[in-house]
Amino acid sequence: MSKCGEYPTVLNGKIASNTSTTVEYECLGGFYISGDPRINCTNSGWGTAPTCSVIRDEINIFRECLQVECVVVTVLFR
What we know:
This protein is mostly beta strands. The chain contains no helices and eight strands.
């Protein structure tokens, strides 16, 4: 813990590392980080914590689908 008090909570995220003046976040699986993952303790308190946003569902695109054989391409969008 630091002079700034408790570290901000990041929904769907966790603390990757911390010191008394710095905390770094990472997102849980299936989520990506928006914003600076590292925040600092200043005289006015903790900086703005990042957010963890869900990675959009994988979309299966069927390129060719013959009677028995299909070719599937998986595209991952952020």
